[in-house]
Amino acid sequence: MAEAQLHDFPSxxxxxxxxxxxxxxxxxxxxxxxxxxxQAGAAKVFISSRKASACxxxxxxxxxxxxxxxxxxxxxxxxxxxxLEGVRDLLAQVSKHTGHVDILLANAGAxxxxxxxxHPDSAFAKVMDLNVRGVFNLIREFAPLLQKRASVExxxxxxxxxxxxxxxxxxxxxxxxxxxxxxxxxxxxxxxNLAVELGPRGITVNSICPGxxxxxxxxxxxxxxxxxxxxxxxxxxxxLGRGEDIAGVVVYLTSRAGAHVNGAAIEIDGGxxxxxxxxDVKL
Length: 283
What we know:
Keywords: NADP, Oxidoreductase. GO terms for molecular function: oxidoreductase activity. Helix content is 39%, strand content 13%. By secondary structure, the chain is of the alpha/beta class. It has one domain (14-274): Rossmann fold (3-Layer(aba) Sandwich), CATH 3.40.50.720. Strand 1 (19-23), helix 1 (28-39) and strand 2 (44-48) form a beta-alpha-beta unit. Mean pLDDT is 91; it is low at 278-283. The N and C termini lie far apart (58 Å).
């Protein structure tokens, strides 16, 4: 039967020869994602964060991976994605190495925890600038490179890192993350708008919504909410997220397997979002 004939199934999840840019790629979920892109066959993965030393260290670890395609390389491109000047500096650095980009992972983000009554305006502004405004500037500035080789059959991909905090109530109380939760909801809706805007240009825009993953950003909240073990046991899947959980979704969205997925938001949290009270952590 014709339905049984799938086109070149062995290459469905391959990123052979692709060029990717990962902001916030020097550690945590960004580094997990960058590792996945390289190991799935990408030829060049640009790693960006504010600290040059962190970018260099991350690239050294990635380039030491044993199963990369011949010539594959991770390249450090430090920049501050929170400002338009920083985004344009990142674009200039990437443009020195390539004339096109196939995959853009807008992963750089910040959070701030403080009570409602004393929550500073400067902190709220900082989080919104990087998590929303910075993402919009990043995608707009990189659109010409993303369009260079984009087509109906092989669209370029944008993946935005949002959060389950943008889908439900985030952390409240003494360590309330009001700006973070609002920014992650905002960037999800931005992604939906850009999916419709950029789809005709051959660019898909999707978002991932991680739950609690042990990382530098989340470890403080995890400890206050009961620790790694306690939070893991409370999850419907009885564990927290792992790097592989992010890696698999990112490869799916950026490979041929995800070519017709556009405007989606994929939760990666073991189902905790739907567990009553899971996100309403009052500290």
